[in-house]
Amino acid sequence: MRKVKWPSRKKLDAMIKKLDNTEGTVHLSEDATPLEHFRWELCQRLVAYMYKHGLKQKEMAKKLGVDEPQMSRILHHRIDKVSTDKLLRMVQILDPHIKLRVG
Q1: Does the pLDDT at position 12 exceed 90?
Q2: Are 45 and 90 in contact (CB under 8 A)?
Q3: Exposed/middle/buried for residue 46 (C-beta within 10 Å: 0-12, 13-18, 19+)
Q4: Can you give the pTM of this predicted structure?
Q5: Cβ distance 76 to 26 under 8 Å?
Q6: What single string gives the DSSP state of each residue in 9-29?
């Protein structure tokens, strides 16, 4: 049986500190508005495209003309400071023939 070597206390503390400063993905609340659902779905399309095409966050940012920190926020649905129009333009860059429906 192989012996497992645990990280040092110093390394564990550094990892915990890094995780404390990390923001996770925002999920929709149960009472989300139709607009919030729509914006969340746009972000999901960006995430799906990135994974489907094996792109890194940096590559997605370059492709969409945004900086990497903003791309990270968008991919984690932290979009309170991103307009719906901007999200739509990003999705249309990736799929110019996309058809959107309301309702």
Answers
A1: no
A2: no
A3: buried
A4: 0.73
A5: yes
A6: HHHHHHHHHHHHT--------
